[in-house]
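# step 3/5: fold
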Amino acid sequence: MPWLLSIWEEFLDWLPVLLTLLDIAVVVGTIVWVLMTKIDSTSAVAWCLIILFLPFLGAMLFFFFGYQHVDRPLRRKRQHKRKYHSGAVRRGWETDSGHWVPSQPGAKRDESPLDSMTNLAYRFGAHALTTGNRIDFYDFGPPAFDAMLQAIEQARHHVHLEFFIYQPDNLGRRFLDLLSAKARQGVEVRLLYDAMGSHRLPARMLRPLHDAGGKSSVFLPLNPFRRRLQINMRNHRKLTIIDGQVGFVGGLNVGDEYMGQVPRFGPWRDTHLRLLGPAVTDLQRIFCEDWDFAAGETLTGSPYLQAQQSAGPHAVQIIDSGPDRDLKGIREIYFAAITSARKRLWIASPYCVPDAGILDALRLAAYLGVDVRFLGQWQPDKWIPQYAARYYWAYLLAAGVKIYQYTRGMMHSKFILVDDDWCTVGTANLDNRSLHLNFEVNCLIYSKDAVAELERAFLRDLDDSILLDPRAYADRPFPGKLLENACRLMSPVL
């Protein structure tokens, strides 16, 4: 029909104008969105540049990776956190359960440097300091998973597991078979996994667990019909708690790669803990809060949250953080660790993508003569964060930081040693994703013996590592430097 043809031809004539107007609207609207939501100026500038040069793609990337909308699910997460923290500890100092609540700001007490750090962590959202804990360290997956499975086998009341990645492979089936068997015995089994990290886990694999009476739930499911396509704000925690008495936390997820059985990764170097004592109750509280948020089931009372007997010599403080808080507690503790170190600061992390404050603090520590060492990857599992890290390495090397690359396999440990006094071990990497975007949990350990054990592990790792030469690194090829600069533009979400 001629009139339809004429309308179509007129539409085609106007199409470039319409696309131009749409392009301008998308760019302006998204930049306004960035400016209204991004506090960090470096992050805001980076996102604005991406949106200007890649209008439609940049807007889409910001929606999926850059925007942390605290909508109803995260407001609800805050409510659950308040519920599980209210009444959990009392003001003053209590010693009956091994918990020590720091004094309030302004209270007059003589404080040692470690007292100051525990008080600071408490004000950053950490749980109360606990004494009388036993810690067993694991450097590789097989012994750690054997200990977890043995503890699950001995469970009498409940088994709680929370993982970022749960793979549908041999190890995943091994865990599920045991969990199903325990559920059939009448043990309460609860498995919480992250929707993004465990996207490969099919629902059918969980049916035997459900049929046996066990429960599972997914953290922040990806649902486009409820505006839940958020790639950020993932639950990166790895927790296993049995009967409220035994707790495991660290870098290990559930998957064959963590057993060192995936050739492209090789041997998997990680750091995982088994805890006995009062600190386990705080790990349990974190799980209960996350489970209540994800599954809608409130877990309270003595079977779950109970006073613990002394089990060892270590003082431990549990700290969790996430995008549901304005103050990023683990990030602030990392910053405090760097600025408080006087003799040495040894860091192990698979990724090194620090924000501007952390980067400046690391450089300042090295300039002040602190022995700053960073242990990272040689063969990365993710190339973009690795090239972004190489950009920051140049500045750290110039300041005197010693950087080592682990060559024996995949380096996935996450710990920091501060002088000879205390250390932090957990799930948080030294990158913006862990410190600003994800839900994480770390153990702050105030124990010279624990520091000495991690020191020995760190030194063993250095035997399998390459030390970067600052002058040779500065002369690396230009194409590599260009790629590093391009990748570091994604630093706010790496």
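# step 4/5: annotate
Residues 87-96, 103-109 have pLDDT under 50 and may be disordered.
# step 5/5: archive (pending)
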